[in-house]
Amino acid sequence: MLLPARRTYTLILAIFVLLILVACTRQLDPGRWSFRGLRPLSTHNNPSETVAQPVETPLSNSDIPVIQPVSGDVVDAGESSVVPPPPPAQPTEPAQSIEPPAEKVSEAPTEPQEPPKKPPIDLNKYLTSIRDINDTSLDRLKCPPADRERYDYLRTLHNLPATPPPFKPYFFALNLHECIHILPRLLGSIVEAIRILGPENCALSIVEGRSDDGTFEVLTALNQSLPEGVDYYFSRSEINPTKSGRIGSLAELRNLAIQPLTDHPERFSSTNTTVIFFNDVAACPDDILELVHQKVFQKADMTCAMDWNYVDYSGSFRLTFYDVWIARTMSGESFFHIPFGGSWNESMRLFFGQNDADRLSKARFEKGLPFQVFACWNGGVVFDAKPIMDEGVRFRLNRDNECYQGEVSLFTKDLWIKGHGNIAVVPSVNLAYDDKTAVRIQKEKGLPGDWNRKNARNKSIHVPWKTMPPPKVLCIPDWVRQPQTWVDWNE
After folding, report:
1. What CATH number does residue 304 fall under?
2. What is the pLDDT of residues 69-93, one digit of tens each?
3. Which pTM does this prediction carry?
4. Which domain holds residue 136?
């Protein structure tokens, strides 16, 4: 009887082991269970049903150049950026993690760490540098003396008999953020331009935002460096284009800068005040004054500079036009072709279109002569105050069913709609967003005075204006996510 008992015991033991194996196999079923922590991946009723989790993979393209950072985040960039921001995306559900929750490790409490503070600036040095065009206490781009013989007439252009005049013929506007390094050159040049235009004829409006590098402190004390007679409007804004809708935020900031025109209409003239709006760029006095002069000489509604940056093309740095997302030729094309996917390999072929409008632009550009465009900003512009003061034109975000584009693109589009289509790029004015790049640009592109001497006897110096815009304009909402399309210019 002992043998059967042993067999029975062995059979029972085998059945028990088999049950354990079945249970383990069920727990390790990858269709329902995670191997790490045996946590369910899905709460669906069907144990064999799995849920695909959304995964964002970064875009990569060996053709896309690495853009070197520029100062500030206004405006522009404009803060008009070379790489356009994508339209606001619809919120999505976060991907479900399959990692087990991390175990809590008790640590001794620590005191909150403050971010490192930037060293204080020598405020007097900055104010002196801005006030004195010849001061060398701070490093900055070297500029030639302003060509007073060419620009002195701008001071008496309006033949204003009274002193002070009944209105300010020149209104400077700036948005500035974290750009202490550019202030000696930019503001120094503006102050020198103001001296030539006449301090009694000028107003300066600056909106600063969120700077902790000394920019705010310099601008707060800037009155000490301004010539007597200048109206100075200074304000600070917490609007942050990197935290909210970028284009809408940039539009708000630009509108704040021009707000004194409508807040104090008695101080300005809708028919005789000129707005001079610059980004945070390294500009010489002649760069500013040449844009003003060409607006008068060409009978333009708006004049723009050309802005540039050095871009890394697989280790080879090349001078590249910067504001390509904004600018459009009179054929409606971008200044150079960027195919869907974002390759900048064709950036050296400016005005590439095989049509009469682009051929004319290319020919005049190569001679340093102003040429008409549909849209531009390019680091610095000069335009009439009338659309702002009388016609309600403002910087804005695109409307529903309107091409997603920059606030300055929409500004120039609205100028065309209001009948102010004499918009020209002045290629003898070339700007950069830091002093080092500006030095190289001066060598490669020349100064306004160099081009003026070359074209002194050129009989084709006047822009051949067209009254009608291009019927279609290229819409580029994004380089890599949405296709480019041609849309009606006034959609």
Report:
1. 3.90.550.10
2. 333 333 333 344 444 544 433 333 3
3. 0.78
4. 123-488
